[in-house]
Design a protein that fits this description.
This protein is α+β, with helices and mostly antiparallel strands and 207 residues long. The protein has helices at residues 2-20, 48-69, 75-84, 86-99, 154-158, 163-172, 177-184, 189-204; strands at residues 37-42, 106-115, 118-119, 124-125, 128-137, 144-150. The chain has 8 helices and 6 strands, in the order H-E-H-H-H-E-E-E-E-E-H-H-H-H.
């Protein structure tokens, strides 16, 4: 109990210092959590075959969803567009599994999930709770695949990223340049600290 109190006090002191030193995320950086839609695909197991199947399912889902969110300008629009094609997403994922010779079941749902810090080619997302399209293959006991479905960065995560187009994608859905720097300039001491503070808030308050 005493250790928990000391940890809480230290955390509050750090946050207070950060606020007064201009490092605290005061420009709405927490909107990062309310801007994106993540994709979370869980393989049946960690076997080489199941992991390969996971990637094929991922590719098919990206192929189905990308056109649906292409013209969306907000997270709410993206969620509505994805929900409208959930049946298609489910059937296409099941078809991939069947075509590969497996009889695994597939479940698809939109939910809020807690994600660890995740780095892609040109950006990193802080730990916290995100809206997520969760796809479970079979027993869903294998390694995960995470990426950003909206704005559509999954193709960048699966191949070579394009920093300029990624920035345009985030700016177009409401993030400011300063907010975008939080997730891309994590090697910059200033933004590295702000990223960590945001990450702490995401972890402590389930944001």
């Amino acid at each position: 109990m005493a250790y928990s109190k000391k940890l809480l006090i230290c955390t509050l002191i750090i946050l207070a210092l950060a606020m007064f030193s201009g490092l605290f995320p005061v420009h709405g950086e927490s909107e990062i959590y309310d801007t994106v839609v993540r994709l979370h695909v869980l393989a049946n197991s960690d076997s080489e075959e199941d992991q390969a199947l996971k990637l094929k399912v991922r590719d098919e889902i990206i192929k189905v969803v990308s056109p649906a969110v292409e013209n969306c300008s907000s997270q709410d629009e993206a969620i509505a567009s994805i929900n409208a094609i959930m049946g298609d997403i489910q059937s296409r994922a099941e078809q991939v599994v069947k075509n590969e010779g497996y009889d695994y079941g597939v479940s698809v749902e939109m939910d809020r999930e807690h994600y660890p810090t995740r780095t892609y080619d040109s950006c990193a997302f802080p730990e916290g709770e995100y809206v997520s399209l969760k796809v479970c293959i079979g027993d869903a006991e294998g390694k995960n695949w995470w990426c950003c479905l909206f704005p559509p960065l999954c193709l960048s995560a699966a191949s070579a990223g394009d920093a300029e187009s990624n920035e345009e994608a985030f700016i177009s859905v409401g993030l400011s340049s300063d907010q975008y720097k939080i997730i891309t300039e994590t090697d910059n001491p200033k933004y590295k600290i702000r990223f960590k503070i945001l990450e702490t808030f995401g972890s402590l308050f389930g944001k």
